[in-house]
Amino acid sequence: MLILNDVAVRYGRFEALRGVDWSVGTGQSTVTALLGPSGCGKSTLLRAIAGFEPLAAGTVSWDGEDLSGRPPHRRDFGVVFQDGQLFPGRTVAQNIAYGLARRGVRGAAAAERVATMLDLVQLGGFEDRPVGALSGGQAQRVALARALAPEPRLLLLDEPLAAIDSQLRESLAESIGTIVRAAGTPTVLVTHDHREAALMADTVSVMRAGRIVQTDSAERLWRRPADEETARFLGARAVVAGVVRSGVLITELGETDLRGRVGFDDLADGDCTVALRPEAVIVEPDPASPAVVEHAAALVAGRRARVRVGGDVFEGVSSVPISVGDHVRLGLAPGALAVVGR
Ligand SMILES: Nc1ncnc2c1ncn2[C@@H]1O[C@H](COP(=O)(O)OP(=O)(O)OP(=O)(O)O)[C@@H](O)[C@H]1O
Fold it and tell me: In what residue span(s) does the ABC transporter domain sit (predicted)?
């Protein structure tokens, strides 16, 4: 199990990480995503774990052993970067066998391991291909096979899908999740995309400004973000005050019964802050309402409207066509709302 205790990393006077307490590989969680906006310190944290970045404070340990004296190649961690970084001019098999030779696995044993890894990433028979002749998705799967071949005790993936077409990304995200679970290797996945985190990870840790602000399942994160900034990062467009009474949430947009809903079972009565993704706000035509549509668009996921109500602006969804200038009323859809920080 990987444990980080009060870790700090500095670049000159800039503190890129501070006070990071974190653990990976506990309980049932195989894949842990490190999710956060650009520049928050995700790659720095991954590099600190891998041993590429010296710590200004704190410790990184594995099963109780402090790793500070161990260089990256002696940590037994596999690493895959954004663009795979395969060795050019070599074949797929030569790339995958690279880490095996360093561990003394050669000849027939290495060839067998390479074939097993290629089957795992569904590229059986690709041994003799030059890596320059692979598609982006195939190259990333070879990079994954290369990282997993020496049976690392931890796998570190830094935005492994960043260079992949959006069409392929979702299926590759799923297949990487399946592959690392089949290999049973605890994995850290760095991503700035919350969809990708939810598709691949069992546990999601949200980072901001060099700190980890929340660690939860993706589902819990959607419903109970730690603070307003986290809620906005996860797609909330508006925040309103609410109050919970006997499990019923009451807001200026209406009320909704949260009893029995996943993620809200432990919600105590009292005042709260409610974060609203557009799907949480239902827009319906109502000529008598003072709320007016400022912007309307037909998206693949449905009709979207930006609505002004006095000084406030909400984004919502509509099941009927609406246009700019229409008067509408707003309601709550419980599925996409979140209660912040409680
Ligand atoms: N070698 C370096 N020297 C100085 N500052 C650095 C260095 N590497 C990173 N930083 C700074 O540290 C902060 C964290 O960078 P990091 O690359 O870890 O962020 P990130 O969350 O991985 O971002 P992204 O999603 O854009 O890759 C940023 O402000 C970055 O500018």
Answer: 2-234
Pocket flag, ligand 1, residue 42 (CB < 6 Å): yes
- Which residue in this structure is represented by tokens 């949200």? 206
Q: Which atom of ligand 1 is nearest to the CA of 46?
A: 18
Single-letter residue type at 285: P
Long-range CB contact pairs, 305-310, < 8 A, 24+: 307/281, 307/283
Give per-residue pLDDT as tens, 8-32: 999 999 999 999 999 998 777 789 9
What is the spatial distance between Cα 265 and Cα 200, in angstroms, rounded to a whole number?
25
Taking the C-alpha atoms of residue 170 and residue 167, their distance in angstroms, rounded to an integer, is 7
- Are 145 and 123 in contact by the 8 Å Cβ rule? The answer is yes
pLDDT digits (tens, 9 = 90+) for 271-328: 999 999 999 999 999 999 999 999 999 888 789 999 999 889 999 999 999 999 999 9
pTM for the whole thing? 0.89
Within 10 A of 86 (CB to CB), how many other CB atoms are there?
21
Structural tokens at position 262? 């996943």
**Pair of tokens at residue 185:** 């290797």
Whole-angstrom Cα distance, residue 52 to residue 36?
21
Pocket test for ligand 1, best of 18, 42, 46, 83 (most atoms within 8 A of CB): 42
Ligand 1 atom nearest the C-alpha of 45 is 18
Q: Indicate the domain borders of the chain.
A: 2-223, 232-340
